[in-house]
């Protein structure tokens, strides 16, 4: 019986990997098919639908989060190459980025600072615990950096991950709708906003808008992530 355990884990790994991929592409197809339903489509974002379905499957199969993470390690390992691949549109738009220089960096810094400060102000006025206030300051940078930065300034790393993911999903859903509402059609501006405020998930949304949007989102993601993770520990560590 013990000799069969590795095979069982191996089969479970294949099964969960296949289910995760199928569920995500199914959610992606549902999101695209719901395009005519403009008011419903944002709620059918692939990340929301896929996450809820996977949580439901975990509950039905009594699979813990740690077990699911173990079974889908391959997908987690691919995050690194996927992030590096974002350098391709960045390189293709490098001439434009260099030409704009400070006109790109200033909006990234303003957006990257304004979003968490507004959230922190709301929590401060509501007199929430200090560790919660510190945690929300890292909500606009990518998860690994946010968790480390939150721990360094007295925040809660696990809760930081929740804030980061929630911020990214809201930005990816509401960002394009907000651009249309206020008439922002410039891809450079759209990408800068998505990357600076909604980090990696916003950058993933930028890919569907265009290469220029993706390049500016990638730059904003990197600059804001590095700056925030360096500055916050200096200010509050």
UniProtKB/TrEMBL annotation:
GO cellular component labels: membrane
Transmembrane segments: 12-31, 43-61, 73-92, 104-126, 156-182, 215-236
Main location, first listed in the record: membrane
Record carries keyword Transmembrane helix: yes
Keywords on record: Membrane, Transmembrane, Transmembrane helix
Membrane topology of this protein: Multi-pass membrane protein
Listed InterPro entries: CidB/LrgB
Pfam families: LrgB (PF04172)
Localisation per UniProt entry: Membrane
Keyword ATP-binding appears in the UniProt entry: no
Protein name, entry field: Inner membrane protein yohK
Species annotation: Glaciecola punicea ACAM 611
Gene this protein is translated from: yohK
